[in-house]
């Protein structure tokens, strides 16, 4: 187990370096002029000043040199200070977010995390529950209904489902508005007496004892959470169902039955824990996927997280922001995968032995 | 043949096949079902009836209504079927060829070739798919107007030839160019699963006696690979990959929905749905701008999923669980 973790940890930096290379490769598809234009807040009006910028930032240097500069930063010949360098957390200036990309990510992240946490609970919980129900009633009517439901659920794209629930529950019924908070609540949140602990409004409002703000934040979360959950239920259901069916056909299930155990006990104590092993991985990966910003859901519901920011930046061809977020997401995904693999090793004794 | 028989026996896959046939018919007979106006420069540009912003409800003249900017929804949906098939088929084809090349080289040569190719595959897999597609599209769109980006122009011209039957000696149509950037982005980040599966299959097939026998009689590497290994390793993957057409159409529609795929007014389902983003507060009044294109997309993806699901069960029980979805 220790050797396994060490091996994974050794690969990790290599993988991250490879990812940065790929991202830099995308960046270097652009000419020095285009890159110079990307990295300055205002395009200088005077003739030839862009050339000066290219010289100043070494954008015409050989690609390996530029990659090195991009990674560790470059000494500014005028001020003597070291500028840039993604290893220092400097991802460049975001024109869309009007600030450093790293700051924009930090500012947008709490909303995405909040959405992810709220969505994960029903998504994983109900998905697993329906999957178990489906497996226990294998090939009976209930199972067939759930199967059809999951195939249909799987075939509805996020943007279609999102727009349809918006049409019904916002445009028609006016129950759940888009955005993150109502106007009055945002004023409360921006007020001086409101303390920000996590920047997740459902948590902060409780800590500030503002139940009205909490309810308002929750109402805004209902539709995006439903959308995310609905689209992942179907997948979770199928996975749990097939894993559960697999487990139910194992020899030890026959043993448990022949011992005369009650069916309920067999399922809870013997089948479910074993069937859940592969599901833990998928559930964790789903959560990581959500943390990376759910671009389309956030865009539809005008939810100011990382995903909707990415969509905005991509649309205005703000390559610096887009690549910054891509880098951030890849690193989250790589670390997430590592954690999941290790977790898997702890849960499943078979992996540990190998 | 046995596969086809099983597909026709299963009621759900039967439904999928009927739906797909319907879509194919609509695509073929688009000029008859929704005849383009007499003097049109590009039949894929949805005809406009004026320039008013407000969408108009279904009427005898526009049976499914018009979107913002008075684009005819019925026309767009019908011609969008062609766009969907073209984009889906070409993306799947090229992604599969790419995955096939990389996977079979890795599996066949093994050793450091395998090691390098599979590590590269891992790096590409480190990107979340939709995010990667969005990222690369926005980079490519920054540079697409540039004439000296010759490699990109070259790739784009091949794609344009395959997708639109565009004459490669002529300049690219800017309308198509925006679609091509999205397609390239999806292809670049789409091949990894195929490469992995094919590599595994080749590894398994390589161990069989006939492969050894071919080696013993002195057959060249490429002959062994193309004549003996690939035909045995690749067919099921190809059939399963063909079912990913629905998934790719969906991904492209997502790009279009975000405004990164097809251009405004192009007959593309995702692009048509993206009009609805500006009318969310009044969607209950303008329901038709969402409902018609949405229903068509869902049916299209559902059809592929129904057939694909049955195919997966029949061909390879281990591959159950993959399919179109976002």
Summarize the structure in short:
The complex is a heterodimer of chains A (354) and B (326). Helix content of chain A is 73%, strand content 2%. Chain B is 67% helix and 0% strand.
Detail the topology: elements first, then pairings:
The complex is a heterodimer of chains A (354) and B (326).
Chain A: H1 2-27, H2 32-39, H3 49-56, H4 63-72, E1 74-75, E2 82-83, E3 93-94, E4 99-100, H5 101-136, H6 141-155, H7 158-172, H8 183-190, H9 201-207, H10 211-248, H11 251-258, H12 263-291, H13 295-300, H14 306-315, H15 319-347, H16 349-353
Antiparallel strand pairs in A: 1-2, 3-4
Helix pairs in contact in A: 1-15, 2-3, 5-6, 5-10, 5-12, 6-10, 7-10, 9-10, 10-12, 11-12, 12-15, 14-15
Chain B: H1 2-9, H2 11-28, H3 30-33, H4 73-109, H5 111-125, H6 129-143, H7 150-164, H8 174-188, H9 192-206, H10 209-216, H11 221-242, H12 245-257, H13 269-274, H14 288-315
Helix pairs in contact in B: 2-4, 2-14, 4-5, 4-7, 4-8, 4-9, 4-11, 4-12, 6-8, 7-8, 9-11, 10-11, 11-14, 12-14
List keywords for this structure.
heterodimer; A: 354 residues; B: 326 residues; mainly alpha; globular
User: Radius of gyration of chain A over alpha carbons?
Assistant: 25 Å
What is the end-to-end distance of chain A?
Answer: 9 Å
How many helices of chain A?
16
Helical amount among residues of chain B, as a percent range? Answer: 55-70%
Strand content of chain B: under 5%
Largest sheet of chain A: 2 strands, antiparallel
Secondary structure tally, helices of chain B: 14
Query: How many beta-strand runs of chain A?
Result: 4
Task: Give the largest interface pair and sizes.
Answer: A-B, 58 and 59 residues
Regions with little confidence, pLDDT below 50 for 5+ residues of chain B: 317-326
Summarize the structure in words.
The complex is a heterodimer of chains A (354) and B (326). Chain A is mainly α and 354 residues long. Chain A is built from 16 helices and four strands. Chain A has helices at residues 2-27, 32-39, 49-56, 63-72, 101-136, 141-155, 158-172, 183-190, 201-207, 211-248, 251-258, 263-291, 295-300, 306-315, 319-347, 349-353; strands at residues 74-75, 82-83, 93-94, 99-100. The longest helix of chain A has 38 residues, at 211-248. The radius of gyration of chain A is 25 Å and the shape is globular. The relative contact order of chain A is 0.13. Chain B has helices at 2-9, 11-28, 30-33, 73-109, 111-125, 129-143, 150-164, 174-188, 192-206, 209-216, 221-242, 245-257, 269-274, 288-315. With 326 residues, chain B is mainly alpha-helical. In chain B, helix 4 crosses helix 12 (245-257).
């Amino acid at each position: 187990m220790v050797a396994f973790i060490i091996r994974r940890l050794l690969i990790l930096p290599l993988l991250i370096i490879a990812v940065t290379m790929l991202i830099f490769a995308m960046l270097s598809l652009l000419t020095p002029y285009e890159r110079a234009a990307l990295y300055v807040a205002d395009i200088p009006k005077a003739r030839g000043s862009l050339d000066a910028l290219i010289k100043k930032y070494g954008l015409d240097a050989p690609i390996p040199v530029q990659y090195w500069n991009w990674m560790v930063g470059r000494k500014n010949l005028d001020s003597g200070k070291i500028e840039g360098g993604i290893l220092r957390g400097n991802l460049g200036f975001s024109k869309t977010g009007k600030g450093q990309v790293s700051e924009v990510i930090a500012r947008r992240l709490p909303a995405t995390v909040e959405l992810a946490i709220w969505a994960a609970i029903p998504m994983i919980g109900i998905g697993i529950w329906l999957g178990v129900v489906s497996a226990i009633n294998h090939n009976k009517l209930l199972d067939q209904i759930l199967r059809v439901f999951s195939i249909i659920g799987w075939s509805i794209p996020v943007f279609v489902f999102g727009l349809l629930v918006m049409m019904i529950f916002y445009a028609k019924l006016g129950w759940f508005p888009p955005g993150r908070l109502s106007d009055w609540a945002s004023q409360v949140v921006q007020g001086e007496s409101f303390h920000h602990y996590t920047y997740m409004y459902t948590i902060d409002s409780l800590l500030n004892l503002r139940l009205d703000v909490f309810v308002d934040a929750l109402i805004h979360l209902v539709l995006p959470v439903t959308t995310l959950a609905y689209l992942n239920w179907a997948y979770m259901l199928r996975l749990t169902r097939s894993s559960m069916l697999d487990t139910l056909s194992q020899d030890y299930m026959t043993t448990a039955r022949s011992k005369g155990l009650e069916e309920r006990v067999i399922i809870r104590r013997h089948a479910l824990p074993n069937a859940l092993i592969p599901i833990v991985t998928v559930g964790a990966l789903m959560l990581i996927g959500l943390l990376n910003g759910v671009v389309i859901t956030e865009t539809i519901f005008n939810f100011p997280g990382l995903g909707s920011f990415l969509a905005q930046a991509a649309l205005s061809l703000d390559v610096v922001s887009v690549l910054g977020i891509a880098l951030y997401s890849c690193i989250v995904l790589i670390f997430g995968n590592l954690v999941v693999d290790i977790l898997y090793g702890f849960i499943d004794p078979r992996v540990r032995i190998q | 043949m046995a596969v086809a028989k099983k597909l026709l026996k299963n009621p759900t896959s039967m439904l999928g096949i009927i739906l797909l046939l319907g879509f194919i018919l609509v695509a073929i007979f688009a000029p008859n079902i929704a005849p383009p106006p007499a003097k049109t420069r590009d039949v894929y540009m949805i005809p406009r009836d004026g320039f008013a912003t407000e969408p108009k409800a279904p009427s005898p003249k526009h049976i499914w209504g018009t979107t913002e900017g008075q684009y005819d929804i019925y026309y767009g949906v019908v011609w969008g079927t062609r766009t969907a098939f073209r984009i889906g088929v070409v993306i799947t084809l090229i992604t599969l060829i790419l995955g096939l090349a990389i996977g079979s080289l890795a599996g066949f040569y093994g050793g450091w070739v395998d090691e390098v190719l599979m590590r590269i595959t891992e790096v590409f897999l480190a990107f979340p798919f939709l995010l990667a597609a969005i990222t690369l599209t926005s980079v490519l769109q920054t540079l697409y107007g540039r004439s000296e980006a010759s490699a990109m122009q070259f790739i784009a011209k091949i794609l344009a030839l395959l997708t639109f039957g565009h004459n490669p000696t002529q300049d690219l149509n800017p309308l198509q160019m925006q679609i091509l950037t999205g397609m390239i982005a999806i292809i670049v980040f789409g091949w990894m699963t195929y490469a992995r599966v094919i590599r595994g299959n080749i590894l398994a097939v390589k161990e069989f006696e006939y492969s050894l026998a071919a080696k013993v009689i002195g057959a060249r590497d490429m002959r062994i690979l193309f004549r003996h290994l690939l035909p045995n390793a690749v067919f099921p993957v190809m059939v399963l990959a063909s079912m990913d057409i629905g998934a790719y159409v969906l991904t492209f529609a997502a790009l279009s929905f975000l405004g990164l795929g097809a251009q405004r007014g192009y007959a593309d389902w995702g692009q048509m749905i993206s009009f609805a983003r500006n009318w969310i507060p009044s969607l209950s009044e303008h329901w038709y701008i969402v409902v018609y294109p949405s229903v068509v997309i869902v049916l299209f993806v559902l059809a592929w999923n129904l057939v694909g699901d049955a195919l997966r069960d029949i061909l390879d029980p281990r591959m159950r669980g993959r399919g179109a979805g976002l």
